[in-house]
Amino acid sequence: MVNEAALDAFYKTVDQNQDDYVERLREAVAIPSISSMVDHRDDVVRMSHWLTSLFEKLGIKYEVRDIGSHVMDNVDLKLPPIILGTYGNDPNKKTILVYGHYDVQPALLEDGWSSKPFDMIESPKGQLIGRGASDDKGPIIGWLNAIEAHQNAEIDFPVNLKICFEGMEENGSEGLEKLIANEADKYFKGVDAVCISDNYWLGVTKPCLTYGLRGICAYKVTVCGPGKDLHSGVFGGTVHEPMTDLFHLFSKLVTPNGDILIPGINDDVAPLTDEENQAYQSLEFSLSELHSAIESKTNIYDNEIETLQHRWRYPSLSIHGIEGAFSSSGFKTVLPAKVSGKFSIRIVPNMEPKRVDELVEKFLKDEFAKLGSKNTLSTECLHSGKAWLANPNHWNYVAASKAVERIFKCKPDLTREGGSIPVTLTFQDALNKNVLLLPMGRGDDGAHSINEKLDRSNYIQGIKLFGAYLHEIASCKAE
Ligand code: BES
Ligand code: ZN
Hints:
By secondary structure, this protein is an alpha+beta fold. It has helices at 4-16, 18-29, 41-58, 133-152, 176-183, 232-235, 242-250, 274-281, 287-294, 304-312, 353-371, 395-408, 423-431, 456-475; strands at 61-65, 69-72, 75-78, 82-87, 95-101, 121-122, 127-129, 160-166, 193-196, 208-213, 215-224, 230-231, 316-323, 334-335, 338-347, 376-385, 388-389, 413-417, 434-437, 453-455.
């Protein structure tokens, strides 16, 4: 039985302290912990210190795990540490493992933000705007606020919590898989289920629980030519140009309608079953919500179901950018000597990263050979992770569903998503436990985009949701 009086006291405390929670998020957003930029690595480490001082304040036992170094942009860098926390150790309680990430995507005012990305502001509509507000600082701080609110309300914490916060999620989670494999029987021993809040509602009004994600294979394709950048007036027309080669290659990867042209890539895609198809019919999702999330009407499919299927259960290929090419305003009549194009393929059940790598490499090599260029081509897989699917009938999901009903007075949608969190599958396989994604933010939060935000109400209700979920876990029967 859930202790209703305790939960009510918890909700009240969360409401009373909400301004402090917002200030806490503001402090965290102010640390530009961008994991993919060499110059910001110290900030990522600073963010880990910020978190451990909060752990100390809240009496959470922790270990800061050094996971070695890696090379990024030809620089040898220490990887940001993984923070492991333990809150409570009562053999009569269930143990829930909470994962989140304290690194963020890059953000510049010049990208089109309407306010400075690392100075969080609150809009008149109650949107907390700043890089990382929704992905994933709001959610990770949400768990810590939930702990604090139990302390302030002087109520018993319903479960033992294990915490795993990393600082490399946006950059391929390097080092994490190994740590989890090593710690499965040690630090993570005794974990009954896993909860991750690093995704978003489908739309803007209804909460969801998410039981599937696409995986990812990320590539960097480099074409090298002249020994240095050249004047295009002097050398244009007389040398093979790396940019021209790269454009030819990239134009062959995918059609403007999103069809991937790499032969064999769709062969392993799990077929759509009738049962699965049926599940799409009852979801609350409208194209108008999609239009507001993308701030345009540039959708490929003109119906909701195909849109969701292509987001959740079919692969996609996106071209992200070109390193080495002139990209500033103004006009530079240059012929870049070396360019690297970056693209990724979101992969789905039953695609295997190794097979995808083989197909991609062969395709690019064959197509490059057809160009007859004297330049050289190299393809590098930067990181990869398989798709993830969990059992949404598990007690972990039942508890979360009841918690959603408590806070939002409706049953959550059961969704899959198109983004990737490689650690979902790692935890599921290494610990052999159920993994649940319990989002805090809305579908229009703009993660990875400009003006990323978390609605104040989602933040505050999200803290309550996390607490209610843990209370439901404590009172549910584990089969
Ligand atoms: N929070 C996202 C994952 C996500 C996105 C879940 C959309 C559900 C819907 C996460 O922080 C993220 O962006 N991950 C990267 C992983 C990649 C770098 C391996 C991603 O999906 O691009
Ligand atoms: Zn995230």
